[in-house]
DNA sequence: GCGATTTATGGGGTTACGTCA
DNA sequence: GATGACGTAACCCCATAAATC
């Protein structure tokens, strides 16, 4: 609620100045006269103002008058000091917020890079495992095909028709987990307790986080909040 | 002399209140 | 008496000037 407090500091000077046109030498002299009155507040005054600002950044009119009396300043000076103080505080607060955001971003970016490397390592391991699994399979296939060829020779009908044998072996039948088999993944990685993380990883496993559009939808603060309070999932990855 | 900081001013906007038709 | 328009005062934020460190 605003009160109708009167300005008592500059009212007289302003009224005096307004009696002249703003372009006249008198007005110019007036401004000089006013500006020459600017004095630094004493340490004691600053101390009191600072301590008051800590309790409330906006002064009630009554407190402003009281403070003005106590410090021997005009209420207008108190008001202006608080106004400037708020501006300084806001500027510093912006700086602090910027530093926090930058730090959070760097933190998140480094974690993302680590996750990317981890993913690459896992994919590489998977590829190696696939190679190991497929080699005996190929050997088996080649031996089978020679047998089939032999059999074909045998099974060629009397009228010249050839019977074709197709040996299609699915990887899943050989014990290799397919990408969409969640139960196998859970079993492999022991992540029954982390369904959310599993979903997260699956959703972003294809490098979709590399696009800025995806970053905007990626709610990093949830992950960060979790990471700061409970590092278990991160320990798993690192 | 120069840059950073502090004090103060002025403009433009908002809100609360009083007055008047 | 209720109401809307208008004026005024006090406050705010913001940009900036001027003095000081």
UniProtKB/TrEMBL annotation:
GO CC aspect terms: nucleus
Biased composition (Polar residues): 138-149
GO molecular function: DNA-binding transcription factor activity, RNA polymerase II-specific; transcription cis-regulatory region binding
PROSITE patterns (UniProt xref): HOMEOBOX_1 (PS00027), HOMEOBOX_2 (PS50071)
Main location per the UniProt record: nucleus
Biased composition (Basic residues): 30-39
Ranges of compositional bias, category Low complexity: 15-24
Record-linked InterPro entries: HD, HDZip_class_I_plant, Homeobox_CS, Homeodomain-like_sf, HTH_motif, Leu_zip_homeo
Domain of life (superkingdom): Eukaryota
DNA-binding annotation, residue ranges on this chain: 34-93
Signal peptide, first to last residue: none
Homeobox domain span: 32-92
Coiled-coil intervals: 84-132
Location in or out of the cell: Nucleus
SMART domains: HOX
Stretch list, region Disordered: 15-43, 136-161
Listed Gene3D superfamilies: Homeodomain-like
Record-level GO BP terms: positive regulation of DNA-templated transcription; response to abscisic acid; response to water deprivation
Keywords: Coiled coil, DNA-binding, Homeobox, Nucleus, Transcription, Transcription regulation
Function: Probable transcription activator that may act as growth regulators in response to water deficit. Transcription factor.
Family: Belongs to the HD-ZIP homeobox family. Class I subfamily.
Name of the protein described by the UniProt record: Homeobox-leucine zipper protein
Organism of derivation: Lupinus luteus
